[in-house]
């Protein structure tokens, strides 16, 4: 154990210590390591009926490993299947460094359990400013840099002020919860702008405790201004509020530092641990004294990344805070009664000696932030953001698109342009075919007389993680620095109808322009000539291709490169936006098209090899197999059948598709080897259909499916003016 604790950071060793009985049993002569391991696993917290030696018998192997992300050692207990004990908690261990220890050993710090070193925030900020470049300085997206706050809290004058041009400021990210706290309103805004107004004790309700503490920490960071939503957005000025919400990504991106109250459950939880600013914290740090004067520092950790963190925080579950985390460059994080700094190039923790050798986790946030730099459309990055975002919760479900507005603005260049109620217009026909990764629930607005948009046809109308056909949407790529397995499919979506979006039922509608899908069509039909920035190359110049061609049914002779992006190879040219380009973000409730419909019956569940959602056969009135349906609703409690199998479902065709008529390569269509599916040679051609139900002349999405093209074409189809709400 000691040898591993003293291992330099460059090495990432692990060591099997033995079984629970071997390591913790009474026959072991050394009791010091038993005390450390028992403390790290928190065996003292076991139920009274389970004694120490009995607990040891339920542990298989004990492994000690050193994590490269924070240089601490973790002891992991592999519990036997027969164990009645819940998985044991984790703790991180550091050796307290001594003068004669090697320089490349990263040691732990013994902390004051109540108070944080007041000099840490400024020291971390100054170190980042001095040592780091790139995204620590700014996001290189012109649109983001222009999104500045309208109002700021001046912590010197203790009032609201109009944000000075180009000023440095700190932003606050926290959870509102159900607390009643002071809000900026039209009725009190003039008073809030008076010097000293924020010191008044007469505000009812009062300024939130978290905001009050953040104002003090702004000073510790050497800053003067704070942006906090409750005070810097006039909450009952609807048009201005909408404008400010759309700028949220830029407001957090341009902040010098974002204070993240991850530990707080509501606006009055506060930011504990700074003397004369907030209440004392309660840091659970244990110091073990070993032979020879060695000290080992222990702190409890949570989650996959082994961070000191609170166990059940609301902050990581909220959609608003996901946007704030994603768009922030430099973060001062309060979590688990501990403080840490995260930026694009480093993570500094108060319980670890300062070093330049610890780097950020390669997690969803850091990988998705690369989208802010990308001018090459990144459908895969969009899906990663959406999967995480739509799994988060809202106090008011109708906020789903408002809370996404800032992200939409930030990533518009990386998704090829505008977003329509959360769906990128560049891939609109593909995005409309989204499907759930897990069970989803229809979002219902809580506020009465609410006119916010929760369309059934968009992911925003449903709560839960969703997926899209990344391979088909990214089929312009041949070789790139990006590599994701879900881009390896040969399935392709082909446009079939022309969509419009409508702000009201009476409006004539605006045609949606799927520019990337149209580029593919234009190129395949020979309607496009290369601009001067594009060059055509023979396949022999670069024989190896990571990704399947845009038309897997025929082998292309050429590929393309763009002069500004030489690291990418393309199967066909696409429109690439200029860095200064701006795009609209609109949230219409309705879309429409002219298409065809038919009625089919839900039948048996198709056994899937992997994934969600449940898949059911579709059969015609003669019980012939026609296709497969992924329903969002209408499944019985067993999950094995549809509730109304005797009732025909209305299906409307919205796209075409094709794939290899085989289950390989992965992923293939789950219905591809159904015994009743007509066999049609090497390629399976189908229509994408949407199951809809009508109410007051408006259709609502209930699921999507695929139907065999030749079986669908013989159904009794009729033309329909489809409007989805």
Automatic annotation (TrEMBL):
> What highest taxon heads this organism's lineage?
Eukaryota
InterPro entries linked to this entry = HET
Q: Which residues form the Heterokaryon incompatibility domain?
A: 169-324
Q: What is the name of the protein in this document?
A: Heterokaryon incompatibility protein
């Amino acid at each position: 154990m000691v040898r591993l604790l003293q291992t330099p950071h460059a090495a990432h060793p692990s060591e099997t210590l033995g079984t629970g009985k071997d390591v913790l049993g009474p026959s072991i002569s050394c009791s010091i390591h038993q005390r450390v391991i028992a403390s790290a696993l928190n065996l003292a917290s076991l139920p009274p009926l389970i004694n120490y030696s009995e607990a040891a018998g339920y542990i298989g192997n004990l492994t000690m490993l050193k994590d490269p992300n924070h240089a601490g050692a973790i002891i992991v207990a592999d519990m036997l299947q027969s164990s009645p004990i819940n998985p044991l908690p984790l703790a991180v261990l550091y050796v307290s460094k001594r003068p004669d220890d090697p320089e490349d050993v990263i040691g732990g710090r013994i902390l004051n359990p109540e108070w944080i070193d007041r000099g840490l925030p400024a020291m971390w900020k100054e170190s980042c400013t001095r040592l780091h470049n790139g995204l620590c300085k700014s996001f290189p997206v012109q649109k983001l840099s222009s999104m500045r706050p309208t109002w700021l809290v001046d912590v010197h004058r203790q009032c609201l002020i109009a944000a000075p041009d180009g000023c440095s400021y700190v932003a606050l990210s926290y959870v509102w919860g159900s607390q009643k706290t002071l809000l900026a309103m039209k009725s009190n805004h003039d008073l809030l702008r008076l010097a000293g107004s924020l010191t008044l004790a007469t505000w009812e309700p009062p300024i939130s405790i978290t905001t009050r503490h953040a104002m003090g920490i702004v000073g510790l960071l050497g800053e003067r201004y704070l942006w906090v939503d409750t005070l810097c957005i006039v909450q009952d000025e609807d048009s201005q509020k909408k404008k400010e919400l759309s700028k949220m990504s830029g407001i957090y991106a341009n902040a010098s530092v974002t204070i993240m109250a991850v530990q707080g459950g509501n606006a009055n939880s506060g930011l504990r641990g700074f003397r004369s600013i907030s209440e004392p914290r309660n840091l659970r740090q244990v110091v073990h004294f070993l032979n020879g004067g060695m000290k080992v520092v222990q702190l409890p950790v949570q989650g996959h990344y082994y961070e000191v963190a609170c166990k059940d925080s609301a902050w990581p579950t909220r959609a608003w805070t996901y946007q704030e985390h994603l768009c922030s460059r430099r973060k001062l994080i309060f979590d688990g009664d501990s403080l840490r700094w995260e930026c694009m190039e480093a993570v500094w923790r108060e319980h670890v000696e300062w070093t330049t050798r610890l780097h950020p986790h390669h997690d969803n946030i850091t990988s998705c932030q690369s989208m802010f730099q990308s001018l090459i459309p990144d459908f895969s990055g969009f899906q990663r953001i959406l999967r995480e975002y739509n799994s988060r919760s809202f106090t008011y479900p109708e906020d789903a698109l408002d809370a996404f507005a800032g992200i939409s603005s930030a990533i518009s260049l990386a998704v090829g342009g505008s977003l329509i109620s959360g769906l990128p217009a560049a891939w609109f026909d593909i995005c409309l075919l989204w499907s759930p990764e897990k069970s989803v629930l229809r979002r219902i607005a809580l506020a009465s007389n609410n006119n916010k948009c929760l369309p059934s046809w968009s992911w925003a109308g449903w709560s839960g993680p969703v997926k899209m056909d990344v391979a088909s949407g990214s089929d312009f790529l041949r070789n790139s620095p990006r590599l994701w397995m879900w881009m390896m499919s040969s399935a392709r979506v082909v446009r079939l109808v022309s969509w419009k979006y409508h702000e009201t039922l009476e409006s004539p509608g605006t045609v949606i322009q799927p520019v990337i899908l149209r580029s593919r069509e234009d190129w395949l039909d020979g309607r496009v000539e290369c601009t001067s920035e594009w060059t055509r190359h023979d396949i022999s110049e670069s024989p190896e291709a990571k990704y399947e061609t845009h038309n897997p049914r025929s082998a292309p002779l050429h590929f393309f490169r763009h002069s500004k992006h030489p690291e990418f190879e393309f199967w066909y040219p696409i429109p690439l936006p200029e860095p200064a380009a701006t795009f609209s973000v609109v949230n219409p409730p309705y879309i429409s098209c002219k298409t065809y419909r038919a009625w089919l019956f839900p039948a048996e569940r198709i056994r899937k090899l992997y994934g969600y959602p449940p898949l059911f056969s579709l059969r015609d009135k003669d019980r012939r197999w026609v296709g497969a349906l992924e329903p969002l609703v209408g499944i019985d409690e067993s999950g094995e059948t549809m509730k109304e199998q005797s009732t025909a479902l209305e299906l409307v065709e919205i796209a075409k598709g094709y794939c290899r008529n085989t289950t390989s390569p992965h992923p293939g269509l789950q219905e591809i080897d159904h015994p009743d599916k007509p066999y049609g040679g090497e390629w399976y051609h189908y229509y994408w259909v949407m199951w809809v139900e009508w109410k007051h002349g408006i259709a609502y999405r209930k699921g999507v499916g695929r139907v065999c093209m030749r079986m669908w074409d013989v159904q009794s189809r009729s033309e329909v003016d489809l409007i989805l709400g």
